[in-house]
C-alpha cells in the first residue's frame, strides 16, 4: 500500500498550485475549504511551504501540541484532495475518445475512481442483480449492508476498529438495463455520487460494465476511516469490487485462495482493518 | 495434515498445516496419492520468483482421490482425478476460447494487482506458485482444496496407475503444447533446448506429431541418453558449437522450429549470461535467457520459436533484431492444460505416449525436502521425483 502522501502523485493535473491548495484544505479547513474549491487553492499557495504530507507529520512530532492538528490534516488529506481536484478539474473536455479519468494531463471529468470490466452475461441479468441493492455486499468488500430507508437507501460501510459509518443515497437516474446513478442525500455521513453503466460488448462477449465513484468525507476519526477505506485508493476499490462482481456473475462464486474457512474469514477481516 | 512448505531460498520443510476445507460451492477436496516436484518448483526453491511467502504450501503436479465436494462440484467422492496446475473457471471469455491459463476469475481480486503491474494484465491462478498467481496452497501435501472442480480435474480409469497419468497435471500437456506451438510439419527439423521433463515430453510430442528430425540440446549425459531413447539426435553444448552444429545438421538452412524448454535459469557461460546471473542473485531480476537467445539465432528465417520454459521478469540484450529481421513467429505461455488432458489421456491409454520412463525417484512426502535438494543438485540422475504421502520408505 502506498502512503497517503502519494495521493498527490496519482492525481490528475498535478501542478504545484493545486498541490499546495489541496494541502491547505487537508490541514484543517476540511469540508468548508473543499466547498470553497478554487478559492482555497489560491490561498494554499501562501499558506504552505512543506512539500509532502509526511513532512508535516514529522514536524508535528517535534512539536507536541501540533500532533493532533497534523493527524487531523492527514486524515482529511485524501478526501479533500479528491473533492478539491474534482472541483478544479471538471468540465474541461477531452481530445480523444478515451474515458476522461484515463487522461495523463489534468483535464479529467472525474477526480475519483472509474473502471470498466466485460462480463459474459446479458445486460439485463447484471442490471437486475445490481439494482437489488441488497446484493451489493456480496462483492463490495467494504459494504456490510444496503437497505431501504424511506425514499432512499442506507449503506452500512465498514470502518477500521470494527466501526461502521452510514451513507445515505438516492437513485438520481435510472435507465432499465443500461444505467443506475446515485448521489448522497443531505444528512449522509459522506458526500458521494456515482453511476454504473451497462452496454453491449461486441459479438458474444457479453456486457461492458463501467463504474464511476466520487467521494468527499467529513472530518474526525470516522472521516479518517472513510478516507482510508475509500479515498486513498478509490481506483483500487472500484477495480476489486468490479472484479468480484464479474467472478460472481460469470463463475458463480468469488475466488479465494484461503485454505480453511477460518482463513477465509481472516482475509475478510484483514481487508476490513487494513 | 503434513505439507511441504517454503521458508526461503533453498529452505523447504515438511510440517503440520491445517487441513483444507470446502469454501466455495464449486470446490472439492482431494486426498493426494501422488505429487511431483516440477522443474519450475526449482525456480521457487532458488528464490527467483517474486511473491512467495514463508509457510506457502508448494506443488502443482498432483492427483488423488476425491474426499469432499461442494454443492456445485460435479465430482463424486471416491473418484480418482488428476488436477491441472492452472486454475480456470471455465466460464469467462478466455476459458470459452480454451485459453485456460488466462482465466480472468481464478486469481482473487486483491492478488491481481501485483502481476497486473508487472505484466499489464493480471495472471490467472496456479496451484502452489506464489501470490502473483493467487497464493493457492499446492498439492505437495496430504490434502488440497481444488476450486472450480467441475472444470479442471480429469477422472482417470482404475486400470491406469498413478505413474502413468500423474503428468497430465502439467509437464505432459506443457511439452505437448510446446511442440504444438512449434507448428511442426512432416519434413521439419526441430531443435529442443533442455532435456528436463518438459523438454523430453516436447521431444516425444514432436516425434508423435511427425517431425522428420528432432535435435535435443543439454549437457547432462543421462538426460541426453533419455532423449536419444525417445528418438532424438543429441548435442552436448559443453562439447559442441550448437549453432554451427544445427546449421550443418539442417543442411545449411537452419532448423525450422526451436523449443526453449529451459527458461529463466539457463546455464551458459557467455558473458551476458554471467552478468544476468549476478543480477538475478542480487534481486535485480534479470531472467537468464541464454538458451532462448541461442535458439533465436539458430532458427531459420521465417521459422517458429516456441517457449514453454518459464520466465518471470525482464531480460537483457534480447536479440530483437534477429527476431524481426528473420521474420520469426513466437508462441509461448503457461499451458492451457484443460485443453489437452482428454486427448493426452487417450494417447496414454492406447500406448502412443508413455510417461513412466521419466520417473527416477519415488519418495515419501516426509522426504520432500531431500527430493528438492537432490532434484536441484543432481540433475543428471534425478530426472523426476514423485512424492507419495502414503509411502513409508523411498523406492
Report what the structure shows.
The complex is a heterodimer of chains A (274) and B (395). Chain A has 2 domains: 4-89, no CATH class; 112-273, Alpha-D-Glucose-1,6-Bisphosphate, Chain A, domain 4, CATH 3.30.530.20. The longest helix of chain A has 24 residues, at 66-89. In chain A, helix 2 crosses helix 5. Chain A is 44% helix and 21% strand. Chain A is of the alpha+beta class and 274 residues long. Chain A has helices at 7-10, 16-36, 38-47, 53-62, 66-89, 123-131, 220-231, 234-250, 261-273, and strands spanning 114-119, 143-149, 152-158, 164-175, 179-184, 191-200, 207-216. With 395 residues, chain B is an alpha/beta fold. Chain B folds into 2 domains: 2-170 and 335-388, Alpha-Beta Complex (Quinone Oxidoreductase, Chain A, domain 1), CATH 3.90.180; 176-332, Rossmann fold, CATH 3.40.50.720. Chain B is built from 13 helices and 17 strands. In chain B, strands 3, 4, 5, 8, 9, 16 and 17 form a 7-stranded mixed beta sheet that branches. Chain B is globular and about 60 Å long. The two termini of chain B are 23 Å apart. The A-B interface holds A 118, 120, 205-206, 236, 239-241, 243-244, 246-247, 250-264, 271 and B 17-21, 23-26, 57, 72, 89-93, 96, 104-113, 125, 134-137, 145, 147-148.
Amino acid at each position: 500500500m502506498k502512503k497517503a502522501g502519494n495521493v498527490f502523485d496519482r492525481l490528475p493535473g498535478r501542478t504545484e498550485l493545486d498541490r499546495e491548495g489541496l494541502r491547505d484544505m487537508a490541514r484543517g479547513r476540511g469540508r468548508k475549504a473543499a466547498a470553497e474549491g478554487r478559492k482555497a487553492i489560491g490561498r494554499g499557495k501562501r499558506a504552505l511551504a512543506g512539500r509532502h504530507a509526511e513532512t508535516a507529520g514529522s514536524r508535528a512530532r517535534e512539536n507536541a501540541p501540533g500532533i493532533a492538528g497534523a493527524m487531523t490534516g492527514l486524515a482529511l488529506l485524501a478526501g479533500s484532495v479528491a473533492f478539491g481536484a474534482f472541483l478544479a478539474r471538471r468540465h474541461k473536455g477531452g481530445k480523444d475518445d478515451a474515458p476522461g479519468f484515463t487522461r495523463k494531463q489534468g483535464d479529467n471529468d472525474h477526480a475519483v475512481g472509474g473502471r470498466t470490466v466485460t462480463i459474459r452475461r446479458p445486460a439485463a441479468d447484471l442490471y437486475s442483480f445490481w439494482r437489488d441493492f441488497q446484493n451489493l455486499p456480496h462483492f463490495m468488500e467494504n459494504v456490510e449492508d444496503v437497505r431501504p430507508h424511506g425514499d432512499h437507501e442506507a449503506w452500512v460501510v465498514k470502518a477500521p476498529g470494527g466501526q461502521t459509518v452510514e451513507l445515505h443515497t438516492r437513485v438520481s437516474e435510472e435507465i432499465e438495463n443500461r444505467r443506475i446513478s446515485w448521489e448522497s442525500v443531505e444528512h449522509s455521513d459522506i458526500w458521494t455520487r456515482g453511476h454504473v453503466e451497462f452496454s453491449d460488448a461486441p459479438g458474444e462477449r457479453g456486457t461492458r460494465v463501467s463504474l464511476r465513484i466520487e467521494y468527499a468525507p467529513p472530518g474526525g476519526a470516522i472521516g479518517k476511516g472513510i478516507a482510508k477505506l475509500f479515498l486513498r485508493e478509490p481506483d483500487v476499490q472500484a477495480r476489486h469490487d468490479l472484479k468480484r462482481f464479474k467472478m460472481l456473475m460469470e463463475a458463480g462464486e468469488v475466488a479465494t485462495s484461503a485454505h480453511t474457512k477460518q482463513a477465509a474469514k481472516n482475509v475478510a477481516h484483514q481487508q476490513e482493518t487494513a | 495434515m503434513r505439507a511441504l512448505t517454503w521458508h526461503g531460498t533453498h529452505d523447504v520443510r515438511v510440517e503440520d498445516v491445517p487441513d483444507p476445507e470446502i469454501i466455495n460451492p464449486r470446490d472439492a477436496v482431494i486426498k493426494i496419492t501422488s505429487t511431483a516436484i516440477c522443474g519450475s518448483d526449482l525456480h521457487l526453491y532458488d528464490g527467483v520468483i517474486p511473491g512467495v511467502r514463508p509457510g506457502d504450501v508448494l506443488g502443482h503436479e498432483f492427483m488423488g482421490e476425491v474426499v469432499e465436494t461442494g454443492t456445485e462440484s460435479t465430482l463424486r467422492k471416491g473418484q480418482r482425478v488428476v488436477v491441472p496446475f492452472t486454475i480456470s473457471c471455465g466460464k469467462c471469455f478466455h476459458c470459452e476460447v480454451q485459453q485456460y491459463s488466462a482465466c480472468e476469475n481464478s486469481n482473487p481480486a486483491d492478488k491481481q494487482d501485483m502481476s497486473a503491474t508487472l505484466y499489464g494484465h493480471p495472471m490467472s491462478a496456479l496451484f502452489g506458485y506464489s501470490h502473483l498467481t493467487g497464493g493457492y496452497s499446492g498439492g505437495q501435501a496430504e490434502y488440497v482444496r481444488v476450486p472450480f472442480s467441475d472444470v479442471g480435474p480429469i477422472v482417470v480409469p482404475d486400470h491406469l496407475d498413478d505413474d502413468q497419468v500423474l503428468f497430465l497435471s502439467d509437464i505432459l500437456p506443457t511439452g505437448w503444447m510446446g511442440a504444438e506451438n512449434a507448428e511442426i510439419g512432416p519434413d521439419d527439423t526441430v531443435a529442443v533446448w533442455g532435456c528436463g521433463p518438459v523438454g523430453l515430453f516436447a521431444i516425444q510430442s514432436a516425434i508423435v506429431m511427425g517431425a522428420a528430425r528432432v535435435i535435443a540440446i543439454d549437457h547432462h549425459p543421462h538426460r541426453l541418453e533419455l532423449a536419444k531413447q525417445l528418438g532424438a539426435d543429441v548435442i552436448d553444448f559443453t562439447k559442441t558449437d550448437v549453432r554451427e552444429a544445427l546449421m550443418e545438421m539442417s543442411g545449411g538452412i537452419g532448423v525450422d522450429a526451436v523449443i526453449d524448454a529451459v527458461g529463466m535459469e539457463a546455464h551458459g557461460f557467455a558473458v551476458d549470461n554471467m552478468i544476468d546471473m549476478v543480477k538475478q542473485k542480487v534481486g535485480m531480476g534479470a531472467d537468464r535467457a541464454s538458451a532462448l537467445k541461442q535458439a533465436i539465432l539458430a532458427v531459420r528465417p521465417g521459422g517458429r520459436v516456441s517457449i514453454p520454459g518459464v520466465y518471470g521478469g525482464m531480460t537483457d540484450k534480447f536479440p530483437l533484431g534477429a527476431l524481426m529481421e528473420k521474420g520469426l513467429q513466437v508462441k509461448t505461455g503457461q499451458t492451457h492444460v484443460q485443453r489437452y488432458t482428454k486427448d493426452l489421456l487417450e494417447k496414454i491409454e492406447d500406448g502412443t505416449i508413455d510417461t513412466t520412463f521419466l520417473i527416477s525417484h519415488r519418495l515419501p512426502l516426509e522426504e520432500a525436502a531431500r527430493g528438492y535438494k537432490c532434484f536441484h543438485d543432481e540433475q543428471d540422475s534425478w530426472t523426476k521425483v514423485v512424492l507419495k504421502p502414503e509411502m513409508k520408505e523411498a523406492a
